[in-house]
Amino acid sequence: MEEETVPSVDEQAYTPEQPPTYDAAFPALTTEARSDRPLLNSGAWQPKFQARTSKCTQVFTVPLVERRFKDMNEHKFGDESEQAKICKDIMQRNGVTIEISLARDQSLTVVVNGRSDNVMKARREVVSKLQTQASDQLKIPREHHRFILGKAGKKLQELELCTATKITVPRADDISELIKITGTKEGIEKARHELECISEEQAKLAFERLPVLKAFHPFVCGPFNQNIKQLVEETGARINVPPTSVEKDEIVVSGEKEGVAKCKQVIMSIFEEKKRSSQTVSVEVKKSQHRYVIGPRGNGIQEILQETGVAVEVPSLDSLSETITLRGEQDKLGPALTMVYSKANSVATSDVTAPSWLHRFIIGKKGASIRKITEEHPKVHIEFTEGQDKITVEGPPEEVAAAKRALEEIIADLKKRMDFAEIQIDQKFHKHIIGKGGVNITRIKNETGVSVRIPSDGENSNVIRIEGEPAGVIKAKQELLEMSQRMENEKSRDIIIDQRFHGTIIGARGEGIREVRDKFNQVQITFPDQGKKSDVVTLRGPKQDVDKCFKHMQTVHKEMLESNQQAQVRIFKDFHKNIIGKGGANIRKIRDETNTRIDLPGEHAESDVITITGKKADVELAKQKIEDIQKELANVKEAIVEIPYRLHNSIIGAKGRLIRAIMEECGGVIIRFPPEGQTSDKVTIRGPKDDVESAKKQLLDLVNEKKDSSFTAEIRAKPQYHKFLIGRGGSNIRKVRESTGARIIFPASGDTEQELITIMGKEEGVKKAKLELEKAIKDLDNVVETDMNVDMKHHRYFVARRGEVLRNIADEFGGVTVSFPRSGVKSERVVIKGSKDCVEGAKKKIADIVSDLECQVTVECVISQQYHRTVMGAQGHNVREITRVNEVGIKFPDKPVPNGKQQQGAGEGEEPVANGDVSSEDGVEKEKSNKKNDTIIITGKPENCEAAKKALLDLVPITIEVQVPFDYHRFIIGQKGRDVRRMMQDFDVNISIPPPSENSDLVKVSGAPENAERARQALEEKVVQLDGEKEDRALKGFQLSVEVDPRHHPKIIGRKGAVISKIRADHDVNIQFPDRNEENQGVITITGYEQNTQKARDEILSIVKDLEDMVTEDVNIDHRIHPRIIGAKGRNVRKLMEDYNVDIRFPRDSGDPDVVTITGPEDAVYDCKDHLLNIQEEFMQDIVDQEYLQDLQRPPSKSSDEPRNRRSGEQAKGFVVRDAPWHASGGSVPDTASTEEFPSFGNVVQPKSGHAWGPVRK
């Protein structure tokens, strides 16, 4: 055999071959006719749920004649129209967007966008609010109404949404067949059609209740419901047979008439036949065997019916009867009876006695033992009853006997080798026996191999049961009893330790508490959680150990308390440096001598309090030493003032405000009151001598003032009198306080002395207040009741406006009670109750009011309906004020009824008005109607009515035209109409500014004459102000242009605009650079005051001069070094430019890629050039070495020239093909490295840079 020649690696890698053709390298895709198959094949993954849009858009048109709001511009400037408000409210409630537009024919186009269900709701609301409504009636048989309503009325709701109408179906107790439809003409027609369709569909259906006795239902249904299924398939009708648990002698059939008729014929023929030929026989079968006759899901009875044609009736489970009835033909009853007995005796039941505690051992771990028996006897069912000493075995007789024997063998074996024990342990110890996370009880179970059952807290039992092998039971019982005895000897004790000391006792990483626990290792010490802020520490363990630990902890706590006593001493801020001493010598000495901690406030803190912490005696000693230093340094005097301790709180004031004010006023003296809880009267004042005297004088003056104002008196009054003494809103008691200066305190609801009223204040004022209250109480004791007659027609006046007139009478006459008859009671009797004088005064007042009412007249004031809202004012404020001032009643007419709405009280037989139409009235009637709508009724005294009428007419709006130059309109309106809206609110007027298309100077102001005049003056003042500002704007609009070479623009702008922003700010000018597409790129425009623009120009020219004085030098730096010079995000090159104060520009895409341009001062440019050349020399060798290593890693080449060519910068040929399309057309080969000709999927192609690297041109 010839030896196979293996080519070398070089030959394998570089076998010369022709380039592939274009068609071979890029084969065309196969073109197939597009099929109807889905784009994704069935084997590929597809999303489980198709994403569907949840939004939809509906467009509908409202014709002009059906529009409710004819004029879309009927609203004030800056306000929303009523139509817009309605749409805005609908959008907010339904979460949709609504757009409205007006066509040339004045029809309204409405576009509703949102979720489909919300769009339907919104459309219905829009139609009902913006389109006039008509109504129609449709007669539908009552039996079809329930199909129109649907389940829970859902079908009717859907119908209303689809048709945008309101459909009213008569109530169940109403015998009417008329259904009312309200809505637009189009909607009514659509709804009418849908209702008629539903009715016609139901008219084709039939419904029958067939009287079939329940005993014969099985014959009708057939075995396994075969007859019913066959009938349903043949006729398509629905047949409803009551279940066996429902005692009904009927079968319901529904569906199309023909199908129902056929079903009725078949069912009734079966019933009649079986009723005629059937006989019955009854047998007694044990109740427990009934379920075997029935079989699973009734299959047993159905099998008997199928094989014999006999129906078997089994009594219900809750019945005590054991009788089973068989019904069928006489010759079939025998075989059926045999099958009943066979099924009844097919299953036997037997009980096996076994203690309940052994059940789980019989079952075995995870049911292993019992599973073995059930696997050997699969037809046997074994049931364990909890709490009972028996096991029930059920199944075929022979298998039941075998399973019973197997169970008895297991029970006998378990009784020989298993035992149990029950012990009594107090339930409070159960959780300790279980242990944390069950650790204790798990340990006992593992060591003894027994099962321990501990009752739950809800069982409230002390019995613990142990089950298992005898030796393990004895051991576990002994251990549990020992634990119980040990716990009974334990005790739990709480000790109070300030929470601030808990951390100190525990120590770093628990070292402190570990020492205590080691000392008392039988005691469990529990600290409260940090978040609870509790001082209680719990100790638990043996009694003696707990008591010892308690004493130890008490001692530790006491020592901590003694060593953490705190005292505060006030030292004048200027002396703190003397307390500290040079280098802290004084304060260190005091700390060492007294063994205390002394904390001084910071140098800039306002506090002058020094805090001392330590043992009580040491703290006092340190305090004395610090005060001695202060006494030596200044003329400090101490004075003691006797002030009754009961006045201390009132002198200190809320949060110490009063006493702090005295200390600050008197040069910062220190005033010290006795500690809270002490009854000492001594108050200490310390400070400079003069300041102490001043503070002492102020304190004594304050004490005398408090003594004078602390006189107290008491009076008694029945609790029911208190509200009359206080008065409505506290008016009566306020008068007493203001006249006497005394403070009157009534008992609170929880006070025991409910009759006691306390008066506090100066003696004179208290006595005066006491006399006034006693007089008022005496008057209340003389309460009388009287009545008077008031004509019923005047009752409304007294009780109107929530009884305002009656409240005024009660306030005026000592809180008398005036009672008018209840509404609906025909009586003129009015009852007045109160003190005698007050009752008489109120009675006279009521009589005077009635007299005035009798003299009242009615005056008509005609004001056009369109002005009524303006006249009434916001929330009726204007009318209420006129009514109050002139004591009259004012009634405005009701609003006119909109088109299409039926007047209240109109008869049901009246035809509804068609959309957009109104009843034709003659001219006279129309004029009367308009006059009635414009008439305001004023009731009261003649002179008051005239005054009220004049006040109303003065509120009728007028329109004033104001000359405002068109150029100023935008300043009047303000941003988004803000200024004009504010002016309208301030003057309560409407300001109409002409649209820009009119180019008009006339601004219309509408409102009350007085308000309109004020608004006119405000507008004129605004025009004057704008005239003045116009001159300033003209001066500030001076423009100056300066020619600057575009290459200097980046330097003038500066980094992030820093340089140009500074020039703008310094000279208050606007500087505009030319846009890139402008023809003259060198012109910079400066706008501002003339003088400022010239200064800004000079500064720019100064910068340009400095730039032109610079030199430019080109240096050749290998382009491979450029990225290293630039650095990440240009950091390195920016640092170079800052260090050498030069500008460095890298080459553009075209030209020599190695040329770098440096611009700046001559010396700096040459220094920077040297630095760049040094960088090149440093990095160039690294780059050459890297490229050499890369060449070594490439496969060896046949051509020894290729590596050199690549190192010299020549690029490889890349992928070459023959016969490509560009060869035939003579075009150039595409550049595969270009992202523009070969873009990546999903990537954005960056445009080619048009300038060298450097600062971005603004």
Automatic annotation (TrEMBL):
CDD domains: KH-I_Vigilin_rpt1, KH-I_Vigilin_rpt10, KH-I_Vigilin_rpt11, KH-I_Vigilin_rpt12, KH-I_Vigilin_rpt13, KH-I_Vigilin_rpt14, KH-I_Vigilin_rpt15, KH-I_Vigilin_rpt2. InterPro entries: KH_dom, KH_dom_type_1, KH_dom_type_1_sf, KH_Vigilin_N. Residues 1199-1210 have a biased composition (Basic and acidic residues). Residues 132-200, 204-272, 277-345, 346-412, 417-485, 489-558, 563-631, 635-704, 709-778, 782-851, 855-957, 958-1024, 1036-1105, 1109-1177 form the K Homology domain. It is found in: Cytoplasm. Residues 404-431, 612-639 form a coiled coil. Keywords: Coiled coil, Cytoplasm, Repeat, RNA-binding. Its main location: cytoplasm. GO terms for molecular function: mRNA binding. The keyword Signal does not apply. Residues 1-23, 891-931, 1192-1258 are annotated as: Disordered. This is K Homology domain-containing protein. It comes from Littorina saxatilis.
